[in-house]
Amino acid sequence: MFSRIKKTYREYKELKYLAYHDSLTGLLNRNWLYENINQIKTRYVYFIDINDLHKVNENGHSFGDEYIKKAIGTIKHRGIFLRYAGDEFILFSDYKNEITTNEYYSVGISMVSGCLIKAINLADAEMIKSKLIWKSKNVK
After folding, report:
1. How far apart are CA 111 and CA 92, in angstroms?
2. Is the pLDDT reported for residue 23 higher than 70?
3. pLDDT given at position 138
4. Is 88 helix (H, G, I), strand (E, B) or coil?
5. Host domain of residue 78
6. How far apart are CA 37 and CA 58, in angstroms?
7. Chain center to CA of 31
8. For residues 83 and 22, is the Cβ–Cβ distance under 8 A?
9. Considering its fold, how many domains does the chain have in total?
10. Which pTM was predicted?
11. 20 C-beta neighbours (distance < 10 Å), count
């Protein structure tokens, strides 16, 4: 009986991990964000989007998966880092200028002053501006 309870608990822990973590990167995911949004205390929100992933995926999605892992592997951070959507990531940090746009990804940053959702949306809008600037410099 005890071994069955132990097995059930292990399975529960595994399912909970899978529910709140991205299977490709191991990072926290959007489910975790919305479950914990009211507990997140941070000064800055970084919204990160992988550059040119669609071009990489033309060689196959497994290449895209490896590109995503390589790109996020370059991000050194101090804070809560999560995969928000396909090629979009969010970093909650108390440090300004933690990461900046480069050849792998475009970044938007916003300072949190009240509603975290508004800060996320503002960082997303800033990332879009950053991506447009990056694209204009890297047109081939």
Report:
1. 10
2. yes
3. 83
4. strand
5. 22-137
6. 35
7. 12
8. yes
9. 1
10. 0.89
11. 17
